[in-house]
Amino acid sequence: MENLSNLLAQRREKAENLAAEGVALYGNRFNHPQPIADLLPLGTVLAAEMHDDSDTVFRVAGRIMSMRKFGKAAFFHLRDSSGDIQVYARRDLLGEESFNRFKKWDVGDIVGVEGKLFKTKTAELSLEASLLQMVTKSLRPLPEKFHGLTDVETRYRQRYLDMIVNPEVSTVFRKRVEIIRLIREFLSDRGFLEVETPMMQPVPGGATAKPFKTHHKTLDMELYLRIAPELYLKRLLVGGFDKVFEINRNFRNEGISTRHNPEFTMLEFYQAYATYHDMMDITEEMISWLAEMVCGSMDIVYQGVEVNLAPPWKRLTMDEALVQIGGLDASILMNEQALIHLAKKKGIELQSDAGGGKAKTELFELLVEEKLIDPTFITSYPTEVSPLARRNEDDPSVTDRFELFITGREIANAFSELNDPIDQRQRFQKQIDERGDDEEIHPVLDKDYIRALEYGMPPAAGEGIGIDRLVMLLTDSASIRDVILFPLLKPESGE
C-alpha cells in the first residue's frame, strides 16, 4: 500500500477539485433509496447478458467497496446495510461531464445510483447507472482488498471500519439485537414487567465486585456506578410487582479478558412466589428457544465444539459435580480442614478467615467448570459464598441457588431469595466485618434495603444472565470483545 499520508493527500486533492466543480461532498439528501437486498431476487428471472425489459428504474445508495475502470466505462460494487450489488457506469449513458466527475470517485465513497437491472456475461446481477450522485466523500482509504482489516486491536478500536470491511461483524451485532428482542418477548409473554433501576447508586450492592466511583457536585455526595440491579429489583417485589425484569448495563472495576469487560450487559428477572427450581425451568426453556430462533437448531457448534441445548439439562449439586467430574473423594467434602488443605495444595490462595464453603467453591472452579460443555445446572452453593440466597431448609450450610454453565463458563446465576431481614442484616454485617482489604465488598450496610425487607418481601426467586456471554455462545464468538460494539481499550499511543 502506498504511504498513507500520500493517499490522504491525493484524496483531499480530489475532494477539493470536486468541490470546485460544484459537487456537494457532504450532501444532506438522497431520498428514499431501496434496500439492495430487495433487488437481488429480481435477478433470478434474468439470464446472462439479459436486460430487465420492464423499464423499472431502481434507486439505491451505499458505499463503494471496489472499482474497475476501463476508459469509457467502469464497474464498482456498492454495499448498503442489506447487501451488495455491482454497478455498471458508462460514459455514453451518463454523459461526459457526469462520467468525468465519477472518475474522481474513490473506494469508500458513499454514493447514490439510479438505473435498470441486467446481467453481465458472467451472469452477475448489475445495475446500469443512468444517474450517479456523490453523497459523502471518503477522505481515508479502506484497507486493501486482499489484506483486509485483520489486526485485532484496530478492529475493536475502529469498530466502524471493522463493520465496513468485514460484513460478518455486522451479522453478529444484528443477532445480538435479535436475541435481546426475543428475550423481551419471551418474558413479556409470561407476564414479566420491564423496569429501569438506578445506574448511579449511593451504596453498591447485589454482587461482590469493586465499583467505579463518581461524585455528584450539587448534592455533594459520592455515588457508584451500578455493579448489579438486584437490590432495587427486589425492592419492587416489596412494592407489589410480582414479576419484573431489566436488561441493564453494569460496571465493575475489574480486569479485562476474553470473558470480562468492565462495562457489560445483564438480564436480571425476579418472580414472587417462585423458587430457584422455577428459575431453572424458565432458563432452560428460554435459552433452548433462543437457540432455535437465532441458530435454527438446539444443536450448535461453539469454537469447534458441539453443544446440545435441547432440554432437559443436567442438574448436579456442587458436591456431586466435585465427585463425578472433579474426581474428589466424597468423604473430603464433609471435612472443612481437609477442603482448605486441598485447596491450598492445588495453589488456591485463601484468606485466613475462609471456611470450607469458600474452599469447596474454589476447588469446583478449578476442577469442574471448564469440563461443563453441555448445559449443566450446579446447585447447592455454600452459604458462605451466597450472601443474598435463601438457606436450604434441610441443610443450612448450603443455599437454594444454582449457576448455569455452558462451554465451561458461567452463563447464569440464580437463587431463591432471602427475605428474612434479620438474617440478611447479619449476613451483610458479617461480610463487612470480615472484609479486610477486599475492595469487592463495600464497607457500608444498605440500610434502606433492610428497611424494605422489614415491610415484607414475598417468597421469590431471581436470576441474572450474562447477555454478552449468551451472545458469544449463540454467535460462535471467541471473545466478549467480539460481541460488544465498543469494548474498553487502552488509549492509543500519543493520546
Question: What does this protein look like?
Answer:
The chain is α+β, with helices and mostly antiparallel strands. The chain has two domains: 4-142, OB fold (Dihydrolipoamide Acetyltransferase, E2P), CATH 2.40.50.140; 165-326 and 368-482, BirA Bifunctional Protein, domain 2 (2-Layer Sandwich), CATH 3.30.930. Helix content is 32%, strand content 24%. The chain is built from 15 helices and 18 strands. The strands form four sheets. An eight-stranded mixed β-sheet has the order 6-10-11-18-17-16-15-14, with helices on both faces. Strands 1-2-3-5-4 form a five-stranded mixed barrel.
Considering the chains and any ligands shown, give keywords for the structure:
495 residues; OB fold (Dihydrolipoamide Acetyltransferase, E2P); BirA Bifunctional Protein, domain 2; 2 domains; eight-stranded mixed beta sheet; five-stranded mixed beta barrel; 32% helix
